Amino acid sequence: MPRPSRLPREVVAQWTTEHVSSNPDDLTAALARRFGVTRAAAAGAVKQLEAHGYVLRTKGGTRPSFTAGPARWISRRYTLPQADEQLLWERDFLPWMSAAPNILNILHHGFTEIVNNANDHSGGHELQIDFQASAEFIFLGIMDDGVGIFRKIADTLRLPDPRFSLLELSKGKFTSDARQHSGEGIFFTSRMFDAFFLEANQLGYRKFNVGDQEGRLESQDLTLRDHDGQPLGTGVMMFIDADSTRTTRSVFERFTPDAPDDLSFARTVVPVKLASLGNGNLLSRSQAKRLVNRIDQFKVVELDFSGVDEIGQAFADEIFRVFARAHTEVQLVPKNTSSYVDGMIRRVRAA
After folding, report:
1. Topology adopted by domain 9-68
2. What is the rounded CA–CA span in Å between residue 198 and residue 128?
3. Do the beta carbons of residue 72 and residue 97 sit within 8 Å?
4. What residue ranges do the domains of the chain occupy?
5. Torsion from C-alpha of 50, 55, 59, 65, nearest 10 degrees
6. Which of 87, 117, 203, 312 has the fewest Cβ atoms surrounding its Cβ within 10 A?
7. Which of 201-205, 276-280, 316-320 has the highest mean pLDDT?
8. CATH class in words for 72-247
């Protein structure tokens, strides 16, 4: 049987990430042996690896030598719920990562938080973890085959529609197991990365952290969209620029208004548009009550009106008069308001 003349790039990239350091002077021959291909096919694969940054040539000529490049690709599968997130990080992923200390801290935080969530909450049996890096960006993807995070939240809070789970998740301090979890993991993780995608139960939560590199989140985009054919479980995809200067500390302090004396999670940002299903108007008191549910756990609540052009009088009154007067300890801070929304808020506050 003739040997294959081409190799799938993802398989070769993953193998090379882990083995180039042990085969620096005979990488072509090692690839040919490992995948049972001709030397010519292996040489072509090495050329592609070099072009995509997986290896760097340290010596030329007919006997070249290579070292690991900035691009990396690691993929692993595990069994749930026996996954030890710290062991997996230290044994299977950290050895192949090459990034600045602040980025490694963010990757470590995101990895352990999301793997732990899958282990404790998903009810799944399998876990897939993918790590990819290039000179420009770093990607971390974690997928389980469990019940799906939005269905889990909806069932726990008895929500009438799983889509309202996105609103509850965005507030922070939600957990389905308060004895073992604080409900802060996804909230902070989603703000440490430049882009954070969460997909489950035919729904998608997309968050882009735009603004300065200190993580002050000067703008954000949270959207709700359907996914046809979405497999069971939850998929989390996280991206960060390879030259990011953001730190875990800067993100934590952004939501601890009394830092450094008090590092309690006391500030949150709530995307107001998620209080409505789809693109519906925000008019009723029931929508307002949905929005303010659980926010009395915070000292400062930023209400982000991005994508909301108008609100009804009843909606505004329930939040900025009824709730505000009943919870004087909570500071409500409207952000990104249109002139109409701003006028409606001032009107009900003056009543």
Report:
1. Arc Repressor Mutant, subunit A (1.10.10)
2. 15
3. yes
4. 9-68, 72-247, 266-350
5. -120
6. 87
7. 316-320
8. alpha beta
